[in-house]
Structures are given as C-alpha cells and as structure tokens.
Amino acid sequence: MPMMKKLLGATAVAFALAQGAGAADLNADSVMATVNGAEITLGHMIAVRDTLPAEYQQLPDDVLFEGILEQLIQQTALAEIGAADMTKRDEIALEVERRAYLAGSVLDNTAKTAVTEEGVQDAYKTRFAEAEPTREYHAAHIIVGTEEEAAAIKAEIEGGADFGDVAKEKSTDGAAANGGDLGWFGLEAMVKPFGDAVAAMEPGGLAGPVQTEYGWHVVKLIDTRLAEAPSIEDVRAELEGDLRQKAVEARVTDTVEQAKVEKMTEGIDPAILKDQTILGN
Questions:
Q1: Could you report the per-residue pLDDT of 217-261, keeping only the tens digit for each?
Q2: Is the Cα dihedral 196, 197, 199, 200 positive or negative?
Q3: C-alpha separations of 89 from 77, 93, 275, 278, 279 in Å
Q4: Most buried residue, 89, 96, 140, 267, by CB count within 10 Å?
C-alpha cells in the first residue's frame, strides 16, 4: 500500500489530540479531520484499518493512525474531483461494489454465527466417531515411463530382486530414495487406477504394470490397517470450516429461492458483455 511506504507528518497533531481524548469522549462519528468541509471520522479510520493486511495492522499505533488518516485525506480530496466528473461507468461500478460489500457482509455474519460447540461435536460424531472405520494402506511403488519398462521390472522382482533396491535404481519419483515406500495412506489420496490396484491386493502382493497420469507403476502392498479416528481437536479447524461453508451455501440458496427473480435475457447474445461502448467513457 503506497501510503504506508511514505507517511507524512501533517497528521501528528490529530493523532496527539486523539490520544489525549478519553475513550468515553470518542465514537464512530468523532471527526478526526476535514477536507474542504468533508468530515473524516474515527469510524472511517477504523473501517480502513479493518481492511489492511496483517503486516500493516502490526505497525506501531502512531504510525498506523497517521498513515490511515493521511490516506483518507488524500482519498477525500481526490474523491471530490471524481464526484464532479462522475460518469455512467463510475455510477455502475460504485453500485456493483456496494452490492458486493453488502452481500459479503451478510455472508461474513452468517459464517461467524455458524460455528457452535454443539455443531462441531455433532459433525465430529457423524464424520468420525460414529462412522464406519476406513482402511489405510502401506505400499511402495516403482514408477517408470513405459509399460515395457514396468513389466520388465515386475518380472525382475518376481525373479528374486529386492523391491527397494530396484526402486532406488530405476524409479523416477521422489519416493525412490526410500525404496519406493509411500507410507500409510487412504485410497482417496491416490489416483483411481493406483488406488484400485492397491485395494485388490493382499499384503505382500505385487501388481503392475498400472498406468496413471504420472506413468507406469509396479506396486507392492506391504500391509493394511483400520484407521483410527482423529481426536476432535485434530480436526476442529476442518469441521468449523465445513460448518461455515455449509451455512454460507445454505444462506445463498435460501435467499435466492425466497427472492422474486425475473430474468430478461431471452435472445440476448452473451458476447454483449465485451461491448465496452455500452458503459460510455
């Protein structure tokens, strides 16, 4: 933000006055400056601060106060000129921004109230505590560029070669250094052809060539186990995020369903959106 890179000193007096005023004497309408009679209030300044990136919000209070006030002074002075030269494009853009802000505010409030401890507990029970346990797989693989290479490697291992040694020598992915070991995983973490091959195997089995978008695999299944449910704290952030997302989606769906929506787009060419002349200058 340019205004934060070069803070001017003209607002130091305003900051000192604000610092000296008791909190009880200030409110959102308290005037911090005027520009050609247009008021800049404490509420304006707080609203600007709330939109700043975290790194700016961590600046010293006096630096942030002065920078925000200077930005608002500059904006207010320039806005006076902009208002006098308002075009149809400007009016439409402002209305679009207004609607977007108000819609965003509704959805932000919806998300904030969506998470309750009861909701988190219920979501945890449904997804983890009371759900059927899932199976995890421990496998290793060797991946090469062609089916012929994979078939030859499989035959080599079936003939007695050590899987890990062959993986270190011939596999082309990062797991090669570990003998192709992929560790423990759920099938959903793997592309479908690979997951299907693993699911069909017994521990100790060898499969391949298996083709995926990444190449041709020779797969060894080392072991399987039933996955333990994670603790609620381990997945709390995920559950809370899901609750917020579902609440927001439901709010959008319900609001639009309840609204009286009439479309007048019959026969209109969608390419009309490219016609900049419609907005004028």
A1: 999 999 999 888 888 999 999 999 999 999 999 999 999 999 999
A2: positive
A3: 21, 6, 13, 9, 5
A4: 140
